[in-house]
Input
Amino acid sequence: MTDVQTIRVDNVSKTFGTLEVLKEANFVLEQGEFAAIVGPSGCGKSTVLRMIAGLETATQGAVTANGKSVAEPHPSRVLIFQEHALYPWRTVEQNVGFGLELAGMPKKERKQKVDEWLGKVGLSGFQTYYPHQLSGGMRQRASIARAMVMDPEVLLLDEPFGALDAITKISMQNELIRLWEGTGKTVLLITHDIDEAIYLADTIYVMSPRPGRIVTTVRSSIPRPRNRNGADFVRMREKIMEHLDLTQAGKSEEYNI
Output
């Protein structure tokens, strides 16, 4: 993709029937930024992500990419869910290349790109395997390869490692950082895991309970690779946990660590 994007969420609210799930959300996602949203269950985190992906529309406000309204999905913005969503009847190679196949890319070129990304995510040699033959971490690697092979500008991650065990999760977090640093993609991560947000993201938005509002913005300068037991990491964790406890009071703040 060549369409470098700045994503803006301007005064966005979302109501489903009589249920208000999101209230006046505002933030800007700059090209190449790695950002995360944390907050309690049901606060509208995934709703924001789906609106940026073009799968939902705002009840109030606007979501734009480079000044143009986001009204439908676009290949420049790819969404990865917690569940891998691979087709069980297709091999790893066929799953990863599915979007390229739909786009009409010739088979030889498609195979080259698929093999390249399978190598990058550590799945070389697994081209002919089916999803049920892979571990949970390997299936999620295949999902990431399927997204990245399309060369999106914006990668939207909805709890992508939430179902993995702790050791595999850490491995996948490191893999994601490596891929992000190598490509300069813009990433927005939704997570309940505060440590995951601190480890991965440079900007963290903290949301209140439903209707979700962004009540705190954290901008990190902790150098990479980040030490999960380092003083700055622990201090940021304590700050975010404190603000999650204060969200009911509506306190709003922006700070740097």
